[in-house]
Amino acid sequence: MSPAPSPGRWLRWPDGATTPRFAYGADYNPEQWPREVWREDIALMREAGVNIVSLAIFSWARLQPAEDAWDFGWLDEAMDLLHAGGIAVDLATATASPPPWLTTAHPEILPVTATGETVWPGARQHWRPTSPVFREHALRLVTALAERYAGHPALAAWHVSNELGCHNIYDYSDDAARAFRAWLRARYETLDALNHAWGTAFWSQRYTDFEQILPPRLAASHPNPTQQLDFKRFSSDALKDYLRAEREVLRRATPEVPVTTNFMVMGETKGMNYADWAAEVDFVANDHYVVPGPQAVDELSFSANLTGNLAGGRPWFLMEHSTSAVNWQPVNRAKRPGELARDSLLHVAHGADAVCFFQWRQSAAGAEKYHSAMVPHAGADSEVFRSVTRLGRLLADDLAPAAGSARQPARAAVLFDWESWWASEQDSHPTSLLRYRQEALDWYSAFLALGVRADVIPAGAGPDGYDLVVAPVLHLVTSALAKELTRYAEGGGHLVATYFSGIVDEHDHAWLGGYPGALRELLGVRVEEFAPLPDGESVALDNGTTGTLWTDRVEVIDPATEMLARYASGDLAGRPAVTRRPAGAGSAAYVSTRLGPGGLQPVLARLLDAAGVGSELPAPARGRVELAVRVGADGAAYWFLVNRTDEPVEVPGVAGELLTGSRVGEAGADGAAPVLLEARGVAVLRRDQAMG
Fold first, then answer.
1. How many CB atoms neighbour CB 194 within 10 A?
2. Residue 302 burial (CB count, 10 A)
């Protein structure tokens, strides 16, 4: 089970107010600009409605220009100016990138790749998570900052490092090797236990001393798969331990100030097990940047949804996203009209009570000078600045009643498991084309297309409370999890599993007796051999859909199992492709091929109908509009209606007080005129919970 999020605190507002409010702002880097720009910045921030900034994130070289020299004067001035302007500070510990003097004096802190290459200075995050030398110097800086600014009235929260693991999650250095061995001793205690877990009888890999063990560096062939999996676990734990080390320094100095760090729940960022990290911070914070493609908006929603559930349903902090183009994609396109507000409010819809951008003022130099900001190169006389100013007013005024409200759980969920993600995509597998997160996103897109709300929940949260749970590519299943899922289904829940699920245990050992291994009896099917498909090859199903990537030669082992779809072409023609087995008061379904978001819709619709789960949206809006719901302490529900399309959409039959958006036409049977959503638009309604 994943640890529960910390019961810590939200932002400590400098004015001492406890009434919930939305935080709004950006990363602020005054050290990049002359002093005369700073006062202009404060004036523009007030105009835009900014009430918080993240400060000093990459300032180590400026704060500590030499080992025994400190320069806090500029930061003192910036903190004072911000406070005078009514702007709170999320103060970073500035440890994200070590300064040149430190790496010159101590090159042993630099990371090493799997092939033995040193990762040199010149960019950022060039440090080993397990380096005792780096930690000594970093914690010295954290201590100095904590002691100096503990009593500063602008301080609203501490920001540990920045995007931990973004560039240095996997280090194969000698420091990492020593720390990895210590981690393995704590996990397995004995060499016999480790040798069993790693299956070292294969390829003559049996260890007789812990000192013989290394990280999975470049090898002649595929490294030991359990060694690889454990190294991924260790690497996430090593960064989590570093997070704890900084956090404890801050808590000793300022026990009343909340501590967070910015996660990166987005795209293929997978090295950090955030379900395991969430308990280490006082509130969850996340960075998210839109991933281009046909599911771009769905992916944003998926990531925000998962972040909200990592936060346990409580408000969380969107620490970074972009006002417009980024600088690191192959083609960096500007956002279209409405996208800045829509992207921001979609995070709010899933529980964010803080909306911040990278960054405040677009850099004139450096690797991110073409990354958009609240104040672009064009200056305040720009559509971007006008757009962020409109959003600031919207959050401060129109949407103020929704601040502090919590996410309302849905009746359906997509189960997300970091260890299955890691294990399912390792080498020497039936296919190298499988993408765990893509399969999970496809299911989520299918829910959105049907107009059905679904939560994205970490596996450790468990399925209880949901009528239907989809567990896509739940590859790694412990015996305890198998029992939990069986209990869930037999108790009345409806479970859906997919291909390559239930295959291995926590040691990456295959469950024997046929696939899907640990879930075989629950699903009522057995597979002797996998039948992955080459890239570009597909297979037809008799429900009119098409499968790609994977197929299974499914044998039904429980006569009560129902065939929902069969293969209609290829070697498996006539065999089951999608099945559903009654299990106690519930059911367990199996989808043996990748159907994509479109192909999943008819399958999911049938499974939802069997589970008694339907859409809360009126029929004309389903598929075109996403609904997310937050609930206030007073019981009021806040409905966020988000237009998923590039065309205006009218949503009839939705009563309630319109906080933002507009109505058109004549009132319907509910007494309310249809809500008009402009292209890429968002409307928010305050509704009495009794309205449903």
1. 22
2. 26
Taken in order 461, 464, 467, 472, is the CA torsion positive or negative?
positive
Q: Return the number of other C-beta atoms located less than 10 Å from residue 559's C-beta.
A: 7
What pLDDT, in 10s, does the model give residues 541-595?
999 999 999 999 999 999 999 999 999 999 999 999 999 999 999 999 999 999 9
Q: Which helix (H) or strand (E) holds 500?
A: none
pTM, full prediction: 0.97
**Which amino acid would we find at residue 122?**
G
Question: Could you tell me the fold of the domain covering 412-611?
Answer: Rossmann fold (3.40.50)
CATH no. for 619-691: 2.60.40.1180
Q: At what angle do helices 225-253 and 174-188 cross, to 10 degrees?
A: 100
Are 498 and 424 within 8 A, CB to CB? Answer: no
Terminal Cα distance for the chain, rounded: 32
Using the predicted structure, report yes or no on whether residue 64 has a pLDDT greater than 50: yes
Dihedral over Cα of 185, 190, 191, 193: its sign: negative
Mean pLDDT (whole number) for 510-534: 98
262: which strand partners? 285
402-432 pLDDT per residue, tens: 999 999 999 999 999 999 999 999 999 999 9
Structural domain boundaries in the chain: 23-401, 412-611, 619-691
Q: How confident is the model at residue 2 (pLDDT cuts 50, 70, 90)?
A: very low
Sheet holding 562-566, edge to edge: 454-458, 412-416, 468-471, 494-498, 586-591, 576-583, 562-566
What architecture (CATH level 2) is domain 23-401? Alpha-Beta Barrel (3.20)
Give the Cα separation of 222 and 429 in Å (integer). 11
Q: Who contacts 196 (Cβ-Cβ below 8 Å, separation ≥6)?
A: 507
Q: Where are the beta strands (DSSP E) in 408-521?
A: 412-416, 454-458, 468-471, 494-498
Q: How large is the average pLDDT for residues 52-78?
A: 98
247, pLDDT greater than 50: yes
| Whether the bond into 330 is cis, omega within 30 of 0 | no
Residues catalogued as catalytic: 163, 320
> Cβ(553)–Cβ(529) under 8 Å?
yes
Residue pair 319/262 in contact (Cβ under 8 Å)? The answer is: yes
